[in-house]
Design a protein that fits this description.
Elements lengths: L22 H5 L1 H4 L12 H30 L3 H25 L4 H5 L14 H10 L14 H11 L4 H14 L18 H12 L5 H32 L11 H7 L6 H5 L5
Length: 279
């Protein structure tokens, strides 16, 4: 080592972490970086694994923030809720960007290790399903892929048994506009949310007098922002799958592209989209 080499320690940086918590210790990197276990000897399988593992980590954060945002909304702590919802939208943006990396893998490269996946598929992601359930797209049939894991199935059942984030937003909407919730439709606990005329009429009131209902308007636009990013995530998923495997069936047995295209038609907050044609 030459004396001219820059030494951060000369400016106070700690250079010895024996007996102290280091960066790797705090993040438990030894464990995280040992979890990539390709089932084949093909080069591109590492990309496939890391893409999906990191997506699951971002989904974990999205669920953490959505859960906090729902509790903030229940407490009527709207500043905290708005910050948390804004972060969720950016998480979805990050998830969208990840598809650009996966799309560098060609069909020929994916085919080399596809059989190693067996019947595993992103279709089975319980965190993705939880995100849908929290936001209001609730299909009880989607519990079936998790029957072999009672703990994960119970997480999903527990979510189905409570009002979604959107249900809580609708409660806030009616309470703020009318002072009570007696006219509010019952939450759609165990089914995908369908547009309800009474809810749409209330949101329309908000959009027709934004200055008088700014907080509700801001909430509505935050929800639209989240769904916008969520739809892009689904669209990028479809495009990537079609680019890499064409119209083959998915490894989990779904129709692949045909299934994903059907999911593009699902609306999380239909009233907020429908009312735009009425303004």
């Amino acid at each position: 080592m030459t004396k001219s080499a820059y030494d951060p320690g000369s400016e106070g940086a700690r250079m010895n972490y024996a007996g102290a918590m280091s960066y790797g210790d705090y993040l438990r990197l030894d464990g995280i970086l040992s979890l990539q276990a390709p089932q084949s000897d093909k080069h591109d399988e590492m990309l496939f694994i890391i893409q999906h593992q990191t997506s699951e980590l971002w989904m974990k954060l999205a669920l953490f923030e959505l859960s906090a945002a729902r509790e903030s909304l229940i407490r009527r702590d709207t500043p905290a809720m708005f910050k948390q919802l804004a972060r969720v939208a950016r998480i979805f943006e990050q998830l969208n960007s990840a598809w650009d990396v996966l799309r560098t893998m060609t069909p020929a490269e994916y085919t080399q290790f596809r059989d190693a996946l067996g019947p595993s598929s992103g279709f089975q992601s319980h965190q993705y399903r939880l995100i849908e359930f929290v936001l209001g797209n609730r299909n009880p049939n989607m519990l079936k892929p998790h029957e072999h894991r009672p703990d994960l199935r119970q997480l999903l059942v527990d979510e189905l048994n409570r009002p979604s984030f959107y249900d809580e937003a609708v409660r806030f909407l009616f309470q703020t506009l009318d002072g009570d919730i007696r006219a509010m439709p019952a939450p759609q606990l165990d089914s995908p949310h369908k547009a309800v005329p009474e809810i749409q009429a209330q949101w329309k009131r908000v959009y027709q007098d934004v200055s008088a209902h700014w907080t509700l308007y801001d909430l509505a636009e935050k929800l639209v922002d989240i769904e916008d990013y969520f739809r892009r995530w689904r669209f990028n998923h479809v495009t990537t799958v079609e680019r890499v495997i064409g119209f083959k069936r998915g490894t989990g047995g779904t129709g692949g592209v045909s299934y994903l295209r059907r999911m593009l038609e699902v609306e999380l907050f239909p009233e907020l989209w429908n009312l735009r044609g009425e303004l």
